[in-house]
Write a structure and sequence with these properties.
Blueprint lengths: L6 H27 L11 H11 L3 H21 L4 H4 L5 H13 L6 H36 L1
Length: 148
């Protein structure tokens, strides 16, 4: 079943998603704590760029970027074993992780009565697409082996 999710590759997927989700949280903490003064005003684009560069040195920003790098390497290993059409839809699990982490670690206000159904619909629907494609490929492989 080349290209399908296995327990090992699913665990690798979860590691990649978890690292990326924690990376997002660290980036948010670092950017908020650095008080970078980033402006949306087009006139101050130079000062905005300078503020961004200064923020890059914040420990949490650096940690967030490091987590992203590790997540990316994990993702590359995953892609060498799983088809993109199966793996990529599973990234929707990160939506759940980031919302929960934002509420717990950042103390962000979340309207759970809307968030839970929305997250389940998005993640469930996209995951069904990825898992369904993996199952179809598995059935195709079995069928082609039987005809040989």
């Amino acid at each position: 079943m080349e290209g399908n999710l296995t327990p090992r590759t699913f665990l690798l997927l979860l590691v990649s998603i978890t690292l990326g989700s924690f990376g997002q949280i660290c980036l948010k903490i670092g950017m908020t704590a650095s008080k970078s003064g980033i402006s949306h005003n087009a006139v101050s684009m130079g000062s905005t760029l300078l503020s961004l560069v200064r923020s890059m040195g914040h420990p949490f920003v650096l940690l967030g970027l490091a987590l992203y790098v590790i997540s990316t390497f994990t993702w590359l290993v995953l892609l060498s074993n799983v088809r993109l059409s199966v793996a990529y839809p599973m990234i929707s699990i990160s939506y759940i992780f980031v919302v929960i982490l934002s509420a717990v670690l950042l103390k962000e206000s979340v309207a759970w009565s809307r968030a839970i159904p929305g997250l389940l619909l998005i993640s469930g629907g996209v995951s069904f697409i990825g898992l369904g494609m993996g199952l179809m490929a598995g059935e195709k492989t079995v069928s082609s082996q039987e005809s040989d």
